[in-house]
Each structure stands twice: as C-alpha cells, then as structure tokens.
Amino acid sequence: MRVDGSVVVVTGAGAGIGAAMCHSFAAEGARTIVAVDRDRGSAEDVATAVNGTAVHADMTDEGAVARLVAEVEAEHGRIDLFCSNAGVGEAGGVELSSEVWQRTWDVNVMAHVYAARAVLPGMLARGRGYLLQTVSAAGLLTNLGAAPYSVTKHAALGLAEWLSVTYGSSGIGVSCLCPQFVDTALVDALAPQDRTRAWAEATMLTPDEVAAEVISGLAEESFLILPHAEVLDYFRRKADDYDSWLTGMRRLQDSVLPTVPDPSSSGT
Predict the structure, then answer these.
(1) Which of these, 67, 37, 77, lies nearest to 53 by C-alpha position?
(2) What is the dihedral of CA 28, 34, 35, 40, to 10 degrees?
(3) Would you report the helix, strand and coil content of the chain in percent, each value rounded to 5?
(4) Per the residue annotation, which of 149, 167, 234, 242 is the catalytic one?
(5) Domains in the chain, please, with CATH?
(6) Which of 27, 89, 198, 253 is packed most tightly, with the most Cβ within 10 A?
(7) Which residues, including other chains, have CB under 8 Å from residue 240's CB and lie 6 or more apart?
(8) DSSP 8-state class, residue 205
C-alpha cells in the first residue's frame, strides 16, 4: 500500500494515534487527508496542520458514516485508504453497565462495520482499496481489568480477518494495528491505578512511534501491524498452549491489579 498520492480517511483523528497517522501520511505524500473526529475543533486543528480536510462526525451513526464516504468520493473521486481508528475503553468487568458495554461495542466494532459497508462498494468497483483498523493487542491477547475493551477488540480482529479472507482476492487489503499501551488519553481510562499505570508505562510507545510502524506495515501489506514486536511472541505462546498462557496471565493480573471487579456491583 503506497500512501504517496492516496486519498486517506482517518477516524479518531483529533488526537493520539489518529493525529500522528495524519501527520505521517502527510509526510509520505498523501494527496488528500480527511481528518474525522467527534471533536470538531481537534479535527480542524489536525486538518490544518496537514493541509487536509476536517469532518465532524460520529462513527457510531451509520448515516453519518455513509454521508462521509459519499462526500469524500464525490469530491476526490475515490478513497484509497480508510483508517477506522476511533476507539473507547474503560477499566471494569461484567459489572459495568449495559450502556457502557453497548457504547464500547458501537465504537470499537460497529463503527468498523459501518465504514466497511460504506467504502467497500467503491473500492470493489475500482478493484483496489485498503482498510486499516486499529484493533489493539487486546484483540490478540486481552487487556487486564477491562472486559468491554478486550471483548470488542477481539470482535474487531475477527471482523478484519473476515474482511481480508472475503475480499482479499478482489484487490482489498486489510491491516490490523495492534499496539500495547500507547501514550494517549485512553491509557488513563484503561490503567487508572498506580500499579497498572506503572505496568503500562514500562513498554509504552508514543503515537508518533506507532504511526511510523503503520507506514512500514502498510508498505509490506502486513495483516498484523505490531508496534510492540513482543506481542507476536505472546500471541504464539497463547496459540501453542492456551492453558499455560491463561495461567501466566492470571499471575500477571495478581501482580498488577490490587482488586478484581466485583460482579455484584453490576449496573444495567
């Protein structure tokens, strides 16, 4: 996947990994960068910095996603690369409210479905196109103490895998960006306690470091883009001996989480 000369859409572009990707795509010579975010001001700031276009949109609104894709295609003729990057998460388990679970599902999974549904017809008609989905290492492994995030990221990985199998022979490329902790606001939500924060910070990367790995991964058209290279080893260990991997994860949880979620405090 060559970014040079491409029309690129990035969701969740107002900060963090999304903003860093916009800057990296600009440096690589993207023809057009469309920065999409629920925060209008942040989207505009990033778009101005990369000489792109800002769009204020909620990616959990299927109609808004369809309008976004239609408008970009009408103005620029095509979308070469669609980056489904918007994501949410918070610490907690099954006791978290049904509203939290639904919102996490809508952002982390259904927004990817809506984007694929809207953008694939044009890509298939041209016989080429690329989907980059920010999944997280949580989709390959798990995120301690954050059940909705882990579950939805597993689902997002499954969707990307299905899209790659189903449309790969039709010229559609798919990559999953699967970092561990990155220095963004999401870390505060997923690792709010001192011990979990210290654990996260031990291997934390900057958004710019992750964006650089995205450029390399797209050039190689790798399905898994792993900014933390050790994640591949963890994933192999998991597949090789699932029970032993679970035992190791329990030990890690016991060392970094002072308490585990209490299901009796569930809110619906």
Answers:
(1) 37
(2) 150
(3) 55, 15, 30
(4) 149
(5) 7-265 (3.40.50.720)
(6) 89
(7) none
(8) B
Q: Which residue has the tokens 């090789």?
A: 240
Structure tokens at 100: 């939290």
Instruction: Name the maximum alpha-carbon separation found in the chain.
Output: 54
DSSP strand E in the chain: where? 7-11, 32-37, 53-56, 81-84, 129-134, 172-177, 224-225
Look-up of token digits 């899209």: 163
pLDDT in tens, the chain (268 residues): 999 999 999 999 999 999 999 999 999 999 999 999 999 999 999 999 999 999 999 999 999 999 999 999 999 999 999 999 999 999 899 999 999 999 999 999 999 999 999 999 999 999 999 999 999 999 999 998 899 999 999 999 999 999 999 999 999 999 999 999 999 988 878 876 666 677 778 889 999 999 999 999 999 999 999 999 999 999 999 999 999 999 999 998 888 876 666 777 655 5
